[in-house]
Amino acid sequence: MSRTTVDFGIDLGTTNSAVAVLRGVDAEVIKNNEDADTTPSAVWIDKRDKLRVGRAAKERAESDPDNTAAEFKLRMGTAQEKVRFAASGRELTPPQLSAEVLKSLRADVAQRLGEDIEAAVVTVPAAFDMSSCEATRVAAEAAGLRFAPLLQEPTAAALAYGFQSADENARWLVYDLGGGTFDAAVIQLRDGEFTVLNHRGDNHLGGKQIDWRIVEELLIPAVRAEFGLTDLARGAARWRPVVNKLKLHAEKAKIALSRGTSADIEIDLDDGAGRRFEFYYELRREDVQRLAEPFLTRSVNLCRKALEEARLGAGDIAKLILVGGPTLSPYLREHLTHPEHGLGIPLDFSQDPLTVVARGAAIFAGTQRIPGGAAPVAAPGGFTVQLEYSPVGPDTEPLIIGRIAAADGTVPAGLTVELVNSTSRPPWRGGKVAVAETGVFSTTLWAQAGAANTFEIELADASGTRRELTPNTLTYTVGAVETQPPLIHSLNVGLADNTTVRLIERGTPLPARARKRLRTAAPVHRGGGRTGLIRIPVLEGEHARGDRNRTIGRLDITADQVERSIPEGSEIEVTLEIDASRIMVARAYIPYLDAEFENVIDLHTETLPDAAVLRRETEQELERLATVRQRHRDIGNPTSELLLARIDDEQTATDTQQLVEAAAADPDAAVAAQQRLRDLRAAIDEAEDELLWPSLVVRAKELLAYVRRAVDEVRDEIYRRQFDNLEVAVRDAIESRAPDLLRQRTAELSLLWRQILDHTGELPILIFESLARDRNQMIDLRQADDLIEQGNTAVRAGEVTRLRMINARLRQLFAEPPAEPDPFSTIRGA
Ligand code: ADP
Ligand code: MG
User: Fold this and answer.
1) Is residue 189 very low, low, confident or very high in pLDDT (cuts 50, 70, 90)?
2) 578-605: pLDDT as tens digits
3) Has keyword NAD (predicted)?
4) Given this chain, do its domains 8-205+295-365 and 486-600 carry the same CATH topology?
């Protein structure tokens, strides 16, 4: 069968993958070789270099962890760290591993339907960033899928739930809790158009996290206590096989608990030195429920955030549709309908949550034409048709144009064509239309909204005899679905003061382009070596503070690239351009040089986080959290109470700690730990901002008063104007209660103050005084005293230039000269 539309949909899951095909108006799951609907996304390579995918591989993870790989989707697009298969010596990247899963699904299609497919829609979590999407594309291509449009998982699920046939102006919330990813997406239908209004996601939240909690909090302590294995721990290399086995059984028991109230775990454990233990544990539903609670809370909070950002309340959402294996558990449904913990939105779980994404992807695939598909080949004595139409559109009676030809290219007289939909009730026949001598015909068809409509194309010759036609069907779907997922996270550039400038807002359809005019924050001296650098970091994320976002690339302009030195404060025009396939180019134009610099952003630059660094940073954050808590006890308010309680309810801090513990031995945990640490930081930031707000305002107002006085004294029109502008900006930030903004504007204000003081000659005096205060930290006290003496004289005599020189020499007397930091960014706002 030759197809004109893609028709196949693949859910490439963290834990399980599935493939479905559009048949008539319904999507059908294609079972694998073992007659299962889903295939575990796991790969095993034995010592003979034989590669297997699926259940066999997943179960091997237990006995043969060095030769299996699973959950690699979590590392798609992160550092291209290869997974090494010890026995065979093979090394595969996450995209290569995903490609093996896709190949296996393609093989299932070939086996079940006899079709060797080269096109399929592949789904990705809404929380996938650009590099992860790019890696998915690479995987599809490596698996022989020459055309593989990506579709966001929540969109696919909504399609399977018949979203296109929903009421006009319907809004749904898709709740997708999978093995390792969570997505909450608000979807809206308006005027036949289908949009993801907003989404929130977490790439490290899913059933696997519950499994780990069971292992770490229940099973490991039980095994330790019973058999005296004191060093048994997640992350301990020696115990990897045992811990793996515990996790596998924890998952099985957890799944069993969706039906019963307790499940038995019985396993033979082996300490690797010949000792065997028989371990028995009775897992109870209430224990799992307790352990799952913080994750469910986190998921509900993300749903609330998604709604809040879209300015919607629970009452605006018609239903909450459940997707993903963990949504089969009764406690999850209870949690989501709980009057206090839940969302107050009616649930719909009428579709199988494990295959709904693949089926929705297939429905979408029916609307996707295969580009440049091979020209149809006529059967012997038959004809071909080339169709001109859009397989998806808002119209219920679209125009179809086609061109018919025999195998030798001729067109006999008297041909007629009729479109027939035999699956609609009642069956629909479009009536015969004549084919012109050029082979061209046109007709309209009648389509039902809410599903893909398949039409047979019936060709008859002058005598009314049916003739064979290739292809002999076409599909059409009423509705408009975004064919390209929009930008998933906002794109920003980081500035020197750790603020950001947003260039492209998330949710923007691609391709997109934006330009901002900024200024350099450090000079570049031609030939200045390492110190001469304009660094423009490109950040992905929504946080106002630069370092809370993910750095996805940089555009560096180095001293040897410029023809002459660029003074600090030079204008620089930064442009970001991203195309539909998410390749990004960053450009910087410097008018002073009339030169443009460019960097194609390599989406794979982020390296695997270092376990020791994670540990140190986590400790710092925990200390900060303690300080914030203390401050809350002193001067807290209901909002700070709420913000700190959320950290507790979601167990963000303990979760981070546990992941960091596991990070040394488990790269997945390292990536997850980094994400969770970012969440923790953001949560502490929020609470801290709330508590610091009053003092931020006081400081800003004080500074305004000082600078106003200084401006009054210098009587310089330019300073006066700058100050007036900044005053408005500062008051504005105070009024809108935006801590980061206020911080940034206060910083600009103090910069202006510095400039004024420098202009009046007061600045060197202030610097001198502050240096002199630190006299005790200087290495050569005699010289220090001598310089301070000279400095005092210079101050009295008003010798500014001399004082500047003295300051420079004093600075050199410190034991540890301030290190030249690797600049995070060297640009600032215009
Ligand atoms: P993914 O989208 O990440 O591939 P799935 O939707 O296939 O994930 O869900 C896999 C997760 O669902 C696993 O963590 C598995 O333990 C869990 N799961 C599967 N069935 C059940 C069940 N009946 N009850 C609870 N959890 C389940
Ligand atoms: Mg899934």
Assistant:
1) confident
2) 876 667 889 999 998 888 888 877 554 4
3) no
4) no
What is the SS3 assignment for 775? helix
Distance 326 CA to ligand 1 centre (A): 5
Listed in sequence order, the residues at least 6 apart from 204 whose beta carbon sits closer than 8 Å to its beta carbon are 74, 180, 181, 659, 671, 672, 675, 676
Residues 675 and 202 sit within 8 Å (Cβ to Cβ): yes
Question: 302: buried, middle or exposed (CB in 10 Å: 19+, 13-18, 0-12)?
Answer: buried
Residue 152's pLDDT is 85
pLDDT tens digits, 269-290:
888 788 888 999 999 999 999 9
**Comparing C-alpha atoms, which of 392, 456, 400 is closest to residue 423?**
456
Residue 624, pLDDT above cutoff 90 = yes
**Cα(662)–Cα(660) distance, integer angstroms:** 5
CA 701 and chain centroid, separation: 39
Residues touching ligand 1 (Cβ under 6 Å) are: 13-16, 178-181, 206-208, 251, 254-255, 258, 324-326, 328-329, 354
Q: What is the pLDDT of residue 139?
A: 96
List the domain boundaries for the chain: 8-205+295-365, 381-482, 486-600
Nearest CA to ligand 1 atom 22: 255
Greater model confidence, 38 or 799 = 38
> Does residue 820 surpass a pLDDT of 60?
no
Question: What spacing in Å lies between the alpha carbon of 177 and ligand 2's midpoint?
Answer: 7
Q: How many CB atoms lie within 10 A of CB 413?
A: 10
Specify the fold of 8-205+295-365: Nucleotidyltransferase; domain 5 (3.30.420)
CATH number attached to the domain at 381-482:
2.60.40.1940
How much distance in Å is there from the Cα of 74 to the middle of ligand 1? 15
- Give SS3 for 811: helix
Tell how far the Cα of 284 is from the centroid of ligand 1, in angstroms: 18
Mutate to test the pocket of ligand 1, among 354, 355, 356, 668 (most ligand atoms within 8 A of CB): 354
pLDDT tens, 783-803?
999 999 999 999 999 888 898
Does the domain at 486-600 match CATH 1.20.120.530? Answer given as: no
Structure tokens at 524: 């570049």
Query: Mean pLDDT in the chain?
Result: 86
Ligand 1 centroid–CA 603 distance in Å is: 30
